[in-house]
Specification:
2 domains; transmembrane; transmembrane helix
């Protein structure tokens, strides 16, 4: 009606109305509601990702603590072994020294 009242004939008004309607049907416009939905989805994804990162961080901290404890155990074992080897080496030196002294006395 508005197009006809502005001086266009009925056929022209129908053609313009049809073209405008088709252009709106073809065009993909995001409404404010669509944008809000996307923002909400992004926020939900961000929260889920943040929670997952926190879980991974806690898991890694736990694993690092276990590895550090294992390294400490290995260091203790190495220390005990080195003390044991030092004791055995000392005993071997004393034995060899004694055998050398005995050999010198018999010569």
């Amino acid at each position: 009606e508005k197009l006809e009242n502005s001086g266009l004939n009925r056929e022209q008004a129908k053609a313009i109305t049809l073209v405008v309607r088709q252009s709106h049907e073809v065009a993909d416009f995001a409404t404010k509601a669509d944008i809000k939905d996307v923002k909400r989805d992004l926020e939900d994804a961000r929260k889920a990702l943040s929670a997952e990162i926190d879980n991974v961080r806690k898991d890694m901290e736990h694993r690092f603590e276990k590895v550090e404890a294992q390294i400490l155990d290995v260091r203790k074992d190495i220390s005990m072994i080195s003390k044991d080897l030092l004791f055995k080496l000392g005993a071997l030196i004393v034995t060899l020294f004694g055998m050398t002294v005995a050999a010198i006395k018999f010569l």
